[in-house]
Amino acid sequence: MNTGEKVMSSQDISYLLKRGVAEIIIEEEMVKLLRSGKQLRLKEGFDPSFPDIHLGHMVTLRKLRQFQDLGHQVILIVGDWTARIGDPSGVSTSRPMLSVEEVQANAETYMEQFFKVVDKKRTEVRWQSEWFGKFTLSDVIQLTSKFTVAQLLAREDFSERYNSGRPIAVTELLYPLLQAYDSVMVQADVEFGGTDQKFNLLVGRGLQSMVGQPPQQVFLAPILIGTDGSQKMSKSLGNYIGVAEPPDEIYGKVMSIPDSLISHYFELVTDIPDEELEEFRQGLSRKTVNPMTLKKRLAREIVTQLYSQKAASQAEEYFVKVFQKREVPEEIPEYHIPLRTGIDLRDILVKTHLAKSRSEAARLIGQDAVRINGKKVKMPFFTFESGSIIKVGKRRFAKVINTDTLTQ
Q: How far apart are CA 146 and CA 179, in angstroms?
């Protein structure tokens, strides 16, 4: 057994393999590996097409960290080679073709966030281009010869598209094989992913067996429901909580989740004991506990993990002041702007970074999401006073100072 590894009790193994876990293939083999004392190689791959990590990803990352704390090694695969290929057919919008520079920038952002949860010292970072950069057409043909089209069409989304007559690009069929080859190259003992990755992870298990390696165990994490309470957490759906967002923003978003998700979040993204979690469930079911109290505890737990206990306390103070007492926060970003009579509010929202574009600004105004000095604004043209405070939505503020007045 490696120095520093812990001898795992049956209780430890049960917690590791049950809490925050959807499925393990094959669980009996996983238990044997954990009891063997071997330092396991834990594979986690990521597509650098998009750089940001949210709490949905954190479910798997927290599990990786738990394994690391027991002495095991994480292998982080950067999918730089497949990201540069993208999907040239344009069928898959989730796989844009990226330049080397874009891949590098996204990977750096991703890893900065990844290591907010996972221990960097126990992580080996590997880039796909290490092996795929040398791939020849002969290598591709040999790899594809190991699988049939029928096997690949067994994947649910491929099957649905095939049966409905929608196109499937050949490049898309290759991706599961390339991901499987990653497992062979790093000799993964366990591969981690969400339940939507089950097919791809099983292909890796199959390919390892074909080339004489012990097949990797497949560790599937549950899908975290987004803040809307109905769909998978996703940046594209706007129902996400980013791990790199400011503590105030994270705290506020957690407080906005439906009461029905409180236990779900406690189970998947906190370390509260199972006994306490069950008390929370019973309290919510019997209505003997205030959901607001539990949400505050949940928000503190999450912000503390990603930042610090001090940051969590400050975020809670901010929430109470701004949202519960409806006071204006003490620190608001100031912008010095010439405030001519009848200036277009859409331009002001863009200049103060409260909207990304004039069209988004117009949408926010139309949705009654913009207030100036506490009053809703319905028209884009507005006469400002220097020092006016703009509020967009529930959490974003800006103060505008008239530069025309300053220069008089």
A: 14
Q: Does the structure show a pLDDT above 60 at 406?
A: no
Please answer whether residues 122 and 206 qualify as being in contact, where contact means their C-beta atoms are separated by less than 8 angstroms: no
- Rounded to two decimals, the pTM is 0.76
Burial class, 126, CB count within 10 angstroms (exposed 0-12 / middle 13-18 / buried 19+): middle
Question: Confidence band (pLDDT; 50, 70, 90) for 47?
Answer: confident
Planar angle of CA 393, 374, 385, nearest 5 degrees: 110
Q: Which residue has the higher pLDDT, 277 or 100?
A: 277
The whole-number average pLDDT for the span 338-356 is 79
Kindly report the CATH number assigned to the domain that includes residue 393.
Answer: 3.10.290.10
Whole-angstrom CA distances from 74 to 116, 121, 122, 304 are 14, 10, 6, 23
**Same structural domain for residues 85 and 215?**
yes
In a domain, 89, yes or no: yes
